[in-house]
Every structure is written in C-alpha cells, then in structure tokens.
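Appendix B. Chain record.
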Amino acid sequence: MDTLVLPAINAIFIIAGLAPLALVILYRWKEVPLRRTEIQDIMSAAFDQGDEASKTEARAALANNPYVSDPNQTFDRYHNGWRYVFPLFLLTTLAICYTYLGHSWVQAKLVPTIPAPLADRLPTVVIMALAGGLVWSLYQIVSRIRGGALGPGDLYEIALGLLVAVPVGYAFSLVTAELEGVRSFMAFAASAFPVRELSRLVRQYATRRMLESSPTTSSRPAERHLGTAIEGLSDETLTRLGELGIATVLDMAYSDPIKIMVQTGFALPLIIDWTDQSIWALYSGDLKSELNKQGIRCSLDVSEFVDMHLLDGNGQRRTVLEGPHKVALDAIAGKMGVDQSLVQDLFFRIYVDPQVVVLRKLWYPRGLPKELRPQ
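Structure tokens predicted for this chain:
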C-alpha cells in the first residue's frame, strides 16, 4: 500500500493544479451557451411571436427602450472566448505554481533528500497560506459557476486573491500566538477567507444596521434604498447589487436587466420583478406600502389596472367610468388622497413608460392572459 501513497499524492496535486482550467473551460463552453439560449428564447417569445402587427409593435417597443440591451451583444461583451484567455492563463499559472510548491514541500517531508529542496526550507505558514489561497480560488470558481456568475473579470479577481494569499496569510500569522500550529492555521484561514469576503460581510452588516435603524424609509427619504423600498431582497443580494453600483430604486429601475442577469447569474424573472417594483416605488413614493394593500405592488400591476379598468375593449381610454371600473379607481384615489384625474394621469404615464412596456413583454412572453386584457 505504501507504494501507492506517492502516486496518489501526485495525482491529487495534478488535479488541484489543473482544476481551475478545466472548470472554467467547461463553464464557458457548456453553461454560458445555455444561459444565452435561455434569454434568447424569452426574447424571441416576447418580441418575435404572433401576427406581423404584434411583432412590429413589440420590436418598436424594444427599439424605443434605451435601457435594455441586445442579449447577443451583451453575452459577447462579457463572455467572449478571447476575453477568458489571459485571465485564465494567469489563474492557471498561479494554481500550478502553488500546487508545485505544495507538492514539493509534502514530498520533501515524506521522502527526505540531501540536499533538501527549496520548498522544504519554506516556513510552514507560507505553505499553509498557499494552500488556503488555492482552496479559496477553487471554492470561488465552483460557487460562481453554480450561480452562473463567473466571467473574465471574476477570474482576474480570483487570480489577485491567489497573488495576495501569501502576504495576507503571513501578516495574519504575525498577530497570533507564537505557537507554530496556531500561526499556520491563521495563515491558512486568512488566505482561504480573503479581503473580498470580509468586505462583503462588512457591507452586509452595514446595510442591515441601516435598514434596522430605519425600517420604512432610508436615512435620506429621497434616496429610496432598495432594501427599504422593495420586497424580496436578501442582505446578500443587496450586497451583490451594490457591487454593481445598484443601491437605490432609481439605480435599479432603469438598469439593463440583461446585463444584470449576465453579470450576477440571477434569474431574469427575479430581476424583472425588482426592476418592476423599483419603477413603481419611484412613481408612488411613500404611498407604495398603502397601495400594496390595494393589490398595486408594482408597475405591471398598474398596467394591468389600466387595461382592466381604464381602457375599453378596443384599447381606447374610457371617457366615462361606471360600475366596477369606477369603484376600483375610487379606492385607489382614496388611498392616494388625490383626484381621480390625477390618478389616471399617473397610471397612464406608467403604462407608456418605455421600461415598463418592455418589462411587460418579458414578463408575459407568450402574451397577456385573456383575464388581463381590456374588457
């Protein structure tokens, strides 16, 4: 059995050194095309189906919206194969160097030689920092692939994490006890949990403290922070969106949902819902929570209200509201504390907002259900 130990160790280190290269290649050539096909299918169903008049109208809506990009162009921008070459080369080179040093150190301990190799003379804390950096890089690659959020920019970040693994691990080991085992453990732990994770934890903690201190409004009412204005966002999601520069409802309302999907790996329906709520939060302001109770949670609900109550069967604006249509509008106007004409004006402005028009197409790619069409 002893004769199999060294070959097994060699195989483990070879796999560890080549794992980043293999994982990224598989992700780029298997997962990315699947995500591209997914969004292409949604876009095709939303804008290329139906009769010629419907397709012309849908394409015009998309052309009039400057906030939604072409999926193919966006995927090519973020996932072009050539953009992976240099960061993947850099990451693979670092991983191989780290595994080579680790393998040499382990082999020197198992099979002492004279003279001892250089790796055998490296401090244990350095070897542990190298191991921690390699573990962190593999974890980052696997977790981002699982979330569909790996791109060339992320590979640069992971490579940087490997580069700073030794100085970060060594620095942390210096502030611990003099015991070698404790210092080695701290070097490994610090390298396996580097600066980005610490930064995200601090950001999540700061966001949570801000939201707890002001549960209904942000510290500046005009700011309308995402965490206080819309539903369904975890601390982790708020932090991830914050890394993209999206912190307020205005940031979210008119961001490109296709780019957010490509950069973060979030499902498109989730992004549409967040964008949808953000647009409504901008228009409704502090009245949003009250109007939620009336079934108006987002801008798509406003559009459906317009279709069901303010437009007739020919899609024309009703001149006189009667029966349930008048009752529905009275309820909304009463909650908002304004005249009915102002409510109608606001709702029609939302109804024709270019972002809302396209979001509605994406939310109902097969067309509006008949229950929501003008009666």
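Further analysis of this model is presented in Appendix C.
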